[in-house]
Amino acid sequence: MTSLSTHVLDTGLGRPAAGVHVELTRAGEHVAAAETDEDGRADLAAGLEPGVYRLAFAPPSPFFTRVELEVVLGDGHYHVPLLISPYGCASYRGS
């Protein structure tokens, strides 16, 4: 079984980014959507099939209106954090 969660941190403000809209798609088809909670976290989906997915974030940035990541998911749980500041962003595979 494959599952996916995320965490958005506003490094410019030094705190989690609450209320960030996150969408998950596969081959152009909607799979899931969520808003980050007060701690900047969102559980997107469980019971996913392994494969290539796209995560799209609408971050609180005056420059980035949309950040998309394409990830390859196998079996197991995946956690994909997004670090956002007014004019920069980064991501990594979390645990």
Structure at a glance:
With 95 residues, the protein is mainly beta. The chain has strands spanning 2-10, 15-16, 21-26, 29-35, 41-48, 51-58, 67-73, 76-85, 88-91. A hairpin with an 8-residue loop joins strand 6 and strand 7 (67-73).
Shape: globular
What is the alpha-carbon Rg in Å? 13 Å
User: Could you name the ranges where pLDDT drops below 50 across 5 or more consecutive residues?
Assistant: none
Order of helices and strands: EEEEEEEEE
> Pairing-aware structural class of the strands and helices?
mainly beta
| Proportion of residues in helical segments | under 10%
Q: How many individual β-strands?
A: 9
What percent strand?
A: over 45%
Task: Supply the number of structural domains.
Answer: 1
Number of helices: 0
CATH topology-level fold name: Immunoglobulin-like
CATH architecture: Sandwich
| Euclidean distance between termini CA atoms | 16 Å
Superfamily at the CATH H level?
Transthyretin/hydroxyisourate hydrolase domain
Main beta sheet strand tally, sense and closure: 5 strands, mixed
What's the CATH first level? Mainly Beta
The average pLDDT is: 95
Structure report:
- This protein has about 100 residues and is an all-beta fold.
- It has one domain: Sandwich (Immunoglobulin-like), CATH 2.60.40.180.
- Helix content is about 0%, strand content about 65%.
- It contains no helices and nine strands.
- The protein has strands spanning about 1-10, 15, 20-25, 30-35, 40-50, 50-60, 65-75, 75-85, 90.
- Strands 1, 2, 5, 8 and 9 form a five-stranded mixed β-sheet that branches. The chain has a four-stranded antiparallel β-sheet with strand order 4-3-6-7, with no helix packed on it.
- A hairpin with an 8-residue loop joins strand 6 and strand 7 (about 65-75).
- About 20% of the residues are buried.
